[in-house]
Amino acid sequence: MITITTSENKKVYFASDQHLGAPNAVASFSREKKFVAWLDSIKKDAEALFLLGDLFDFWFEYKTVVPKGFVRVLGKLAEIRDAGTPIYFFVGNHDLWMRDYFEKELNIPVYHTPQEFTINNKKVLIGHGDGLGPEDKGYKRMKKVFTFPFFKWLFRWVHPDIGVRLGQYMSVKNKLISGEEDAKFLGEENEWLAQYCRRKLETTHYDYFVFGHRHLPLEIKLQEDSMYINLGDWIQYFTYGVFDADTLSLKKHSI
């Protein structure tokens, strides 16, 4: 478990689901500039930054090739990390084929499963959120196929010009991948990530659960001293999480 203690006037930031590259280069470029502007605004007081997946709408790392584009956001992340601010990246269902590019090029650790952190003595479980809880069954089946080593080996033999274009097309068009169903509020009792959190609380206490994936900004009180927060997205809501002193809450980026 990693422990983070904020310095005076410092904060911990969380963001998720930027889906850069979708639905097309023009629309993505506009969102990328907004996200980079937000990164630029937080760098002065960020003790740490958590990116909770689906930064890219499609991402596949060949051994020597990564998808073209996104230089502004990658450059800004490199700037923030080089200045000494820790950044933690959790892969989502759109960038689940991420390997070690972020770790080698940007010195940003990459996580494929939820992880426990302690922030100012608050215990926090953090992850993208895909495949957790009793639902999300279609994606769970898809993930088993897409993460199967033989399938990944086969895809790696496809020329990048074909493979990346095919992946981008599937990511935008296939609702199992694009997350079109993720933006519908199910009610506090029926939200499957909230159900997952409540089950975790039966064995382990967490002050906060922080996830993305749902594309909805949510703050659901699970117990008197436990909260589930979903970060929303940077397509419609432009919301993010901020841990200030001993409280974690959602904020909206002014566009």
How many domains make up the coordinates?
1
N-to-C series of helices and strands: EEHEHEHEEEHHHHHEEEEE
Number of separate strands: 12
Query: In CATH, what is the class?
Result: Alpha Beta
Low-confidence stretches: 175-179
Order of the strands making up the biggest sheet: 1-6-7-8-10-9
Beta-sheet strand percentage?
A: 15-25%
User: Main beta sheet, described?
Assistant: 6 strands, mixed
Q: What's the overall geometry?
A: globular
CATH topology: Purple Acid Phosphatase, chain A, domain 2
Plain-language structure description:
The protein is an alpha/beta fold. It has one domain: Metallo-dependent phosphatases (Purple Acid Phosphatase, chain A, domain 2, 4-Layer Sandwich), CATH 3.60.21. The protein is built from eight helices and twelve strands. It has helices at residues 25-42, 71-82, 101-106, 137-146, 149-156, 160-173, 175-178, 192-201, and strands at residues 2-4, 11-15, 46-51, 87-90, 110-111, 115-119, 122-126, 208-211, 217-223, 226-231, 239-244, 247-252. The protein has a six-stranded mixed β-sheet with strand order 1-6-7-8-10-9, with helices on one face. It has a six-stranded mixed β-sheet with strand order 5-4-3-2-11-12, covered by helices on one side. Helix 1 (25-42) packs parallel to helix 2.
What's the topology here?
Blueprint: E1 2-4, E2 11-15, H1 25-42, E3 46-51, H2 71-82, E4 87-90, H3 101-106, E5 110-111, E6 115-119, E7 122-126, H4 137-146, H5 149-156, H6 160-173, H7 175-178, H8 192-201, E8 208-211, E9 217-223, E10 226-231, E11 239-244, E12 247-252
Parallel strand pairs: 1-6, 2-3, 3-4, 4-5, 7-8, 8-10
Antiparallel strand pairs: 2-11, 6-7, 9-10, 11-12
